[in-house]
């Protein structure tokens, strides 16, 4: 075996799985930042500047989720078919940068509508394939922490976006948030062009084959319908959808509830939304570590039950401070419950469909996008007719059902079916299995 030589900083930056984690975290942060930074600005732009109506503002908000939902499976399918994560993400980041620039030029409502729709397409590629890339380069035993870090990046982008977007808009100028978004997208694009993920992906494939033997795959031909019918996929997707319903549902109903109960201002309401977002940055990697240390199932079940137990107290108007504490706890338990779905899906991919990671993670994001679309509608109707407590109670009840189903229904992840290999090939795989990533990389450079 060759003597191991440390990687140079440039080699580490270009090839190492940890660098890929940083890339993915930066990409999903940028995507969520650009998405969220525009949200508080749209009513001001559409109503006060363009003379539009609140209902048309709602269309501007929702068109993003619609195009993301439609585009997500396409990105997953194309990426799996051609075996590349890099090119689709490069295209998505270019689209993200271009749409950020266009925001500084548009002047009509339909301009904003078109830009917002195209931005949803960019999000489909960036989010889906970034998480698929994490699954491509980490073994199942390390997926939890890596996915937790990436989810923390998403939470941070969603949290920083509205605050910084509003600040730049008010203090610097109306186009300042979009120039910031353009700079962020451009920086991620340069980083994505620099990083070569193929050695890390090849190393994981070699390690899996050395451990489990070759597994027949469809060469990217596995259909998304086949994947959806697999229990580990649809079960985790249902958990994602149910958890997302409450979080998305709070967006339209929490501000009027807080104002009615505690006479809060618009500014205070906006700051209170940070309460459920901040814990996700810290809790995500911890939940991921617990998944790696134990297994995703108990973490998901306990997290979902805790989420369902805490969330109804949002509708108990004891004091503003009490509500803020409950929102912090809701955000933390939501992250604990959501994080295990990613390594759980990853384990199924590694065992059975190594050619379909893009499509499986596309299903994850489709489930979340669907909850973002339906959650506000369902929450608005429940809140209008029965109030906050009944609204969060219904969503919490659904979470309890999913936790019980997940706890007692077999995960469906079985051992892979191996192909026989010859002695010579077996010896070669044993040698590969003993290599570190650094040794494997040096053997290829």
Task: Write structural notes for this entry.
By secondary structure, this protein is mostly helical. The protein has 20 helices and no strands. The chain has helices at 9-15, 17-38, 42-49, 54-82, 86-103, 109-137, 143-171, 176-194, 198-212, 224-229, 231-262, 266-272, 274-293, 296-310, 320-338, 341-352, 357-386, 388-408, 423-433, 437-444. Helix 2 (17-38) packs antiparallel against helix 8 and helix 4 runs antiparallel to helix 17 (357-386). The longest helix is centred in the middle third of the chain and has 32 residues, at 231-262. The model is unreliable at 415-423 (pLDDT under 50).
Task: Considering the chains and any ligands shown, give keywords for the structure.
445 residues; mainly alpha; 20 helices; 80% helix
Portion in strands: under 5%
Q: How many angstroms separate the termini? A: 16 Å
Oligomer status: single chain
In helices, the fraction of residues equals over 70%
Average of the residue pLDDT scores = 86
Order of SSEs, N→C?
A: HHHHHHHHHHHHHHHHHHHH
For the largest beta-sheet, the strand count, sense and barrel status come to: none
């Amino acid at each position: 075996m060759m003597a191991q030589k440390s990687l140079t900083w440039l080699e580490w930056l270009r090839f190492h799985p940890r660098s890929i984690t940083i890339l993915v975290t930066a990409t999903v942060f940028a995507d969520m930042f650009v998405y969220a930074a525009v949200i508080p600005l749209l009513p001001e732009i559409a109503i006060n500047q363009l003379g539009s109506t609140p209902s048309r503002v709602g269309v501007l908000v929702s068109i993003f989720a619609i195009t993301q939902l439609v585009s997500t499976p396409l990105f997953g399918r194309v990426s799996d078919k051609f075996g590349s994560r890099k090119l689709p993400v490069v295209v998505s980041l270019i689209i993200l940068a271009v749409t950020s620039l266009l925001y500084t030029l548009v002047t009509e409502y339909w301009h904003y509508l078109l830009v917002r729709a195209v931005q949803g397409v960019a999000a489909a590629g960036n989010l889906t394939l970034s998480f698929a890339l994490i699954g491509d380069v980490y073994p199942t035993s390390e997926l939890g922490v890596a996915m937790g870090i990436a989810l923390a990046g998403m939470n941070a982008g969603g949290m920083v976006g509205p605050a910084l977007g509003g600040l730049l808009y008010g203090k610097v100028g109306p186009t300042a948030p979009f120039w910031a978004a353009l700079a962020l997208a451009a920086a991620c694009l340069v980083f994505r062009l620099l990083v070569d993920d193929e050695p890390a992906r090849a190393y994981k494939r070699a390690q899996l084959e050395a451990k489990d033997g070759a597994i027949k795959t469809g060469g990217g031909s596995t259909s998304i319908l086949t994947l959806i019918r697999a229990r580990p996929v649809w079960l985790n997707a249902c958990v994602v959808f149910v958890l997302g319903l409450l979080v998305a549902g709070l967006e339209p109903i929490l501000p009027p509830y807080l104002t009615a109960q505690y006479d809060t201002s618009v500014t205070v309401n906006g700051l209170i939304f940070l309460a459920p977002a901040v814990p996700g940055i810290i809790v995500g990697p911890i939940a991921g570590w617990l998944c790696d240390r134990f297994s995703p199932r108990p973490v998901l079940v306990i997290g979902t039950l805790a989420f369902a137990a805490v969330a109804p107290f949002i509708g108990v108007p004891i004091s503003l401070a009490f509500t803020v504490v409950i929102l912090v706890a809701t955000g933390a338990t939501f992250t604990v419950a959501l994080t295990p779905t990613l390594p759980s899906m990853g384990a199924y991919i590694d065992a059975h469909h190594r050619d379909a990671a893009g499509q499986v993670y596309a299903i994850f994001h489709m489930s979340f996008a669907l909850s973002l679309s339906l959650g506000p509608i369902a929450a608005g109707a429940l809140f209008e007719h029965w109030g906050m407590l009944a609204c969060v109670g219904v969503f919490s009840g659904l979470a309890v059902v999913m936790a019980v189903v997940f706890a007692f229904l077999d995960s469906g992840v079985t051992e892979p079916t191996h192909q026989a290999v010859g002695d010579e090939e077996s010896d070669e795989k044993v040698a590969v299995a003993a290599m570190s990533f650094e040794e494997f990389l040096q053997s290829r450079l």
